[in-house]
Amino acid sequence: ALAVSPADANIVLAGSAGGGVWRSTDGGVTYAPVSDDQIDLSVGAIAFAPSDPAIVYAAMGEEYVSSGVLKSTDAGQTWVRINDSSLPAPGLANDVEVDPRNPNRVYLAQYAGIADDGVLRASGFFLSTDGGRTWSRRLAGLPRDVAVDPGNPDVLYLAMSRVDEGNDRSTGVWKSTDAGQ
């Protein structure tokens, strides 16, 4: 996972399947680990909040199952786990995006999670309106990617490998015109 600060192109954050979040302040020439104090180090996605680049989210769980979302309020220097039990854990995160108007509105594509019986199962597309503390699943299935339309942030696109609700279980690109509701 890679993210570049919209306020300072020299600040680059990188995350890996087992190495945690690394931060560069020289445009990617050198990096230092910044999340080694966290319980898991598997990073699926990283996103800066466009309206407040000091806020950054790291969705944990890429190749390995992890336990949620980390948040930084100092442009990636320090991290804390923020999600409560409303986000299924452990899980595999594919993407995290932030509403460009509101740093507390966060979108998460969590591909899979471990069910109570210990089996890896589909998870879904999640929305947080309180900066990542609580989450609500808006579409069940296997999401791969989420994108926010830069010209109209109420429009989201979601790439789904499978949808697990309703009569239409098709794959493909899904569109929301109400900011993920």
Coarse shape = globular
- In N-to-C order, the SSE pattern is EEEEEEEEEEEEEE
Helix/strand/pairing class, anyone? Answer: mainly beta
- Topology, number of strands: 14
- Mean pLDDT over the full residue set: 93
The value of Rg in angstroms is 15 Å
| Low-pLDDT windows of residues | none
Distance between the termini: 26 Å
Strand order of the largest sheet: 9-10-11-12-13-14
The number of helical elements comes to 0
- Measured by DSSP, the beta-strand proportion falls in over 45%
Largest sheet: 6 strands, antiparallel
Please estimate the helix content. Answer: under 10%
Task: Describe what you observe in this structure.
The structure is a single chain. The chain is mainly beta. The protein is built from no helices and 14 strands. The strands form three sheets. The chain has a six-stranded antiparallel β-sheet, with no helix packed on it. Strands 1-2-3-4 form a four-stranded antiparallel β-sheet, with no helix packed on it.
Defining key terms:
mainly beta, globular, 0% helix, 181 residues, four-stranded antiparallel sheet
Summarize the structure.
The chain is mostly beta strands and 181 residues long.
Fold topology:
Elements (H helix, E strand, L loop, with lengths): L1 E3 L7 E5 L3 E5 L7 E2 L9 E7 L2 E9 L8 E4 L7 E2 L9 E8 L7 E9 L5 E9 L7 E13 L7 E8 L8 E5 L5
Antiparallel strand pairs: 1-2, 2-3, 3-4, 5-6, 6-7, 7-8, 9-10, 10-11, 11-12, 12-13, 13-14
